[in-house]
Design a protein that fits this description.
heterodimer, A: alpha/beta, GMP Synthetase, Chain A, domain 3, 2 domains, nine-stranded mixed beta sheet, four-stranded mixed beta sheet, 13 strands, 35% helix, 26% strand, B: mainly alpha, Amino acid/polyamine transporter I, 72% helix, 0% strand
Chain lengths: 435, 396
């Protein structure tokens, strides 16, 4: 053997020996059987300025299903278990929870964090720092706010209609949101980005527990109420679902319902908006994809329904920024006619324009009312300042712009353009019977 | 001359790509955040400004190397200022690359511990990486560059896929206001980070490995252009994804970007994929760091081969890597040194360039003899330099 080769072989063997010594053990080995995966986390204000931290831990045996195996009852409660720990901080709660679970807690599959409304009013930012810092948490985790109650209430009552996997439940909701626009599946990343922007206010979705469905689950052994009893639960003149923050009037299904958003200023909850307002918000924030809109007929004889898609991004111009700003908003929507409950013959080239104009007027007034509401609160979750900052050259200009004050005094004009492209598979409705 | 003949000629493209990877190591660590701290929303302009400055630097370097028929910089310094100049030149640049190798190694180790191996001792991560670096660069530049060429298409595709997916989440508004803290501040910050591309100086030490001046020149410009393009694109995506306030406090920015991407049920996340390309590029980039340090030291002290210095320098680098007590100390030292050491770093080259132009390009002065390949046709950095040295002595 040549001396060069000998030396090379020696060096190579030495390197391998060093690696063998270094890699003899694996400090970070994680066996699946030794981990307790937390799928959702809830945080509430507790007694004595402490917090309640709820952890929904996956029970893999419950998820398993197949020939000869019985799945865990087909419900979320069968595939997961909920623990609650009271502590001074989230890390402390995690460490205390680990003392009670026989496996190491792991957050890499965490999908949703729910905060109680009280804590949201006090401010979320102190509790979010750990989610940004600790490597097992992801900024793509969804954040929810429990409406008028504790996150624990949501934890204990949630019972999805079909899904038994919490992760799929979250994914399904995230997929559904663009089709409804009554809700916004905001991630931790989006919330923090909006909170970090000095001229923008953040929003988070609110989750409520429906009292009728909850009672069915508790008192009626999960069976729907008889019709008479159900009708007794309803008010005399119920508002359309989603118009206000009131719970939906419904029976059966998941007690949790997803309508509306909570508005935050510097990390603190300042207002809550209904499902309809959330839809208007998403039009202005340019997160709207499509939704079903129901309007009273122009003649007041019934209703007509449209499925409207966003045609293009909102065109917003802001003038006189340093005086009394004027915000000019132009929105473009198009869609399909879903139904004319009033059975009026609107489907013709000349008449359909009446429907378009009427629907546009309704949306315009809804949006104007929402903007006025935001102006009264001096919050701008619509991120109108994006149309100003792109015209600015320096960050100093942006920092010195007291946008919320300017926005509160701004005059606003809203123009909505709607085109009903397709009437569906029928042209005119059948003639209305005269009484 | 053990192993010298094994360093054959190098192709202009593989070297350009491997040096781009060498440059890009810092972008994978903390650079995007540092740039945001320097220039606010205009941070993405800094790699562009620094690239323009570096074009001038590279032209000066190419001109100097052409005048001396692609001899290495320490060799040129030796020709102009004698042995002490050659030694000082080699010692300074070797130390420079070694310090940054050590600091980047430490930051890399801290990143690994902060993200996916929290229980593993730091020493294990650092020593494993150093051994891997030594193994990669032991056979010289040609070996590393060919390895890189095999991996390059996969790395580029996955990297661009990850960044493009992240860009879809971000918004262009975050790039405005367009001039950050102001035009002059941005220009000043751009000049202050000229050392973004200091790894291009490696061309001054590996010039003898190129077949011709044109190839060397082309490789330099492609490396700069490619590195700048990727760095600007990465920076733009980073800034689009985070508000400037968040970006200025973001630990390990590009990794955070990859973690944002979520494709739903079927193909949930891309960060496990991103980690692989991230590790490969960092490993190759760091290997180039220790290689450069050993090569320049060997050239400075006129040693026939760089290999004997690899291991001792690696041990010194490990010792330096342990000097900062905390992650924040390591990144702060790295950022400060990157700004302050660029004065002597570029100053030495400019001094050499001016010295050559003013004092050594007098009428009637003979230029250095062109580089000829060694007898076996391998044309190594060392064999080539040695022959030139002999020829120069004869001509003088």
């Amino acid at each position: 053997m040549q001396p060069t080769w000998r030396r090379r072989v020696l060096c190579f063997t030495l390197q391998l020996s060093c690696l063998t010594l270094l890699l003899a053990g694996c400090w970070d080995r994680n066996e699946l059987e030794q981990l307790a995966f937390v799928l959702t986390l809830g945080i509430d204000r507790s007694v004595d300025n402490q917090i309640d931290v709820m952890l929904r831990v996956a029970v893999p045996v419950g998820v398993e299903a197949g020939p000869g195996k019985k799945a865990g009852g087909g419900t979320v409660s069968g595939t997961t278990k909920v623990l609650t720990v009271t502590a001074r901080s989230v890390p402390e709660a995690i460490s205390l929870a680990e003392a009670t679970i026989e496996r190491q807690i792991d957050f890499r599959h965490l999908r949703i964090v729910v905060f109680g409304e009280q804590l949201a009013k006090e401010g979320l930012l102190p509790y979010l720092d750990v989610f940004e810092r600790y490597h097992q948490f992801r900024r793509s985790t969804y954040i929810w706010i429990a409406k008028e109650g504790a996150a624990r209430h949501i934890f204990l009552t949630t019972d999805p209609v079909l899904e038994k996997s919490v992760s799929r439940y979250a994914e399904d909701l995230a997929r559904l949101v663009p089709q409804l626009s009554f809700f916004r599946m905001a991630t931790l990343h989006e919330f923090i980005n909006e909170t970090d922007s000095p001229q923008v206010d953040a929003v988070l979705p609110i989750v409520a527990v429906n009292p009728i469905v909850e009672r069915e689950k508790k008192e009626n052994n999960n069976a729907p109420l008889p019709t008479d009893e159900y009708h007794q639960q309803l008010p005399e003149n119920p508002e359309p679902g989603g118009k206000t923050l009131a719970p939906l009037y419904r029976s059966g299904g998941n007690p949790s319902e997803f309508l509306g958003v909570a508005v935050f200023h510097q990390g603190k909850l300042v207002d809550k908006w209904s499902g309809w307002e959330t839809r208007d918000y998403s039009l202005l924030r340019d997160t709207y994809k499509r939704s079903i809109w129901v309007f009273p007929s122009p003649t007041g004889l019934g209703f007509f329904s449209l499925q409207l898609h966003r045609t293009r991004a909102p065109q917003i111009t802001i003038t006189d920024v340093n005086d009394v700003p004027h915000i000019d908003i132009a929105l473009s929507l198009e869609g399909n006619l879903l139904g004319i409950q009033s059975l009026e013959p609107y489907v013709s080239s000349d008449k359909i324009a009446d429907l378009e104009a009427y629907a546009a007027g309704q949306i315009q007034s809804q949006i104007a009312a929402l903007i006025q509401k935001a102006q009264r609160q001096k919050v701008d979750p619509f991120y109108f300042v994006r149309f100003l900052r792109t015209k600015m050259l320096t960050m100093k200009e942006l920092d010195e712009l007291n946008w919320r004050e300017h926005f509160a005094q701004a005059t606003v004009t809203v123009a909505v353009d709607i085109k009903i492209r397709r009437p569906g598979l029928r042209i005119q409705p059948r003639e209305r019977e005269t009484p | 001359m053990i192993g010298a003949k094994r360093q054959g000629h190098v192709g202009w493209l593989p070297v350009a790509i491997v040096i781009s990877a060498f440059i890009h190591v810092k972008a994978f660590l903390v650079l995007p955040r540092t740039l945001c701290q320097f220039a606010g929303t205009a941070a993405w302009l800094l790699p562009l400004i620094a690239a323009f400055v570096n074009v001038l630097v590279l032209l000066a370097l190419a001109s100097l190397l052409r005048d001396y028929s692609r001899r290495s910089l320490p060799d040129i310094a030796g020709s102009l200022g004698g042995k002490p100049a050659q030694f000082l030149f080699g010692f300074f640049y070797s130390g420079y690359f070694l310090i940054f190798y050590a600091l980047q190694l430490r930051i890399f180790g801290e990143f690994v511990l902060s993200t996916f191996l929290p229980e593993t001792p730091l020493g294990v991560v650092l020593i494993s990486m150093v051994l891997l670096n030594l193994y990669l660069c032991y056979e010289g530049l040609e070996n590393v560059s060919r390895t890189m060429m095999i991996l390059f298409p996969f790395l580029l595709v996955i990297y661009l896929f990850a960044l493009t997916s992240a860009a879809a989440i971000g918004t262009f508004d975050h790039l405005s206001p367009w001039l950050g803290y102001g035009l002059m501040h941005t220009l000043g910050a751009g000049l202050a980070v000229t050392s973004l591309y200091n790894q291009l100086f490696l061309y001054g030490f590996i010039a003898p490995l190129f077949r011709g001046q044109r190839q060397l020149h082309r490789s330099m410009m492609v490396a700069l252009g490619f590195a700048a393009a990727v760095m600007i694109f990465s920076q733009i995506v980073f800034q689009m994804s985070f508000t400037i306030r968040a970006a200025q406090q973001m630990g390990f920015p590009l990794y955070q970007i990859a973690r944002l991407v979520q494709f739903g049920t079927f193909f949930q996340r891309i960060d496990p994929l991103f980690i692989f390309i991230w590790l490969i590029i960092i490993t190759i980039g760091l290997a180039m760091g220790i290689y450069t340090s050993a090569l320049v030291l060997a050239q400075g002290i006129k040693a026939p081969d760089f290999r004997p210095y690899l291991f001792p320098l690696a041990v010194i680098a490990l010792c330096i890597a342990y000097v900062p007590q905390r992650t924040v100390d390591a990144t702060a030292i790295n950022d400060r040194l990157a700004v302050w050491l660029q004065v002597p770093f570029y100053g030495a080259l400019i001094a050499l360039f001016i010295w050559n132009r003013l004092l050594h390009r007098l009428p009637g002065r003979k230029k250095a003899a062109p580089l000829r390949l060694s007898d076996n046709g391998s044309g190594t950095a060392f064999s080539g330099q040695k022959k030139i040295k002999l020829r120069n002595r004869r001509s003088h």
